[in-house]
Specification:
The chain is of the alpha+beta class and about 160 residues long. The protein has helices spanning about 15-20, 25-30, 40-45, 75-90, and strands at about 45-55, 55-60, 100-110, 120-130, 135-140, 150-160. It has a six-stranded antiparallel β-sheet. The protein starts with 15 loop residues before the first helix and ends with a strand.
């Protein structure tokens, strides 16, 4: 097992053949344990998945200066991206080999500002995964203070992957 790492070029991302050959849970665990490269968005925005189990995924993130908006707080897009990631990846953990998914829509509620430099956990939990849709919810909490900073919900479309 190697350490989590991020892809630095397109050819380092998992191939469609790799994605389709394993369950969604195994795929997520492959990223977490470093067998597969994580997507570059995580490095750009300062977060990564740290735990994946059936129906749930936890991301850890620390928003830094580059995530700030013009009024000096963490941009809402940072909250949206980490929540979209944990909620959608929770759906992914329920997929069988050969299935793929993508976010169809998501909603977030920001309850309070995350201080720049503060580490949070974003936890996504599945509510339903069927033949064509997956629904999950998520929340962002401070690691040290336990406070709830944001919540979200998502609907994902579940599809059969392309025939290879």
């Amino acid at each position: 097992m190697t350490a989590h790492h991020y892809a630095v070029s397109v050819d380092q991302l998992a191939s469609m053949d790799t994605i389709l050959s394993v369950s969604g849970l195994d795929f997520m665990r492959g990223i977490i344990n470093g067998e597969l490269a994580g997507p570059p968005i995580g490095e750009t925005l300062g977060f990564k998945p740290i735990v994946a189990d059936e129906g749930t995924v936890t991301f850890e993130g620390t928003p830094e200066f580059g995530t700030m908006n013009p009024i000096g707080t963490v941009h809402g897009g940072w909250y949206g991206t980490i929540l979209d990631s944990c909620m959608a990846c929770a759906v992914q953990t329920m997929l069988k080999p050969g299935q793929i998914y993508t976010t169809l829509e998501y909603k977030i509620n920001i309850l309070r500002p995350i201080p720049v430099g503060m580490t949070v956990h974003a936890v996504g939990k599945v509510q339903h995964v069927g033949r064509s849709t997956g629904i999950s919810v998520g929340e962002v909490r401070g690691v040290e203070d336990g406070k709830l900073y944001a919540t979200g919900s998502t609907t994902c479309i579940v599809m059969q992957g392309p025939k290879r």
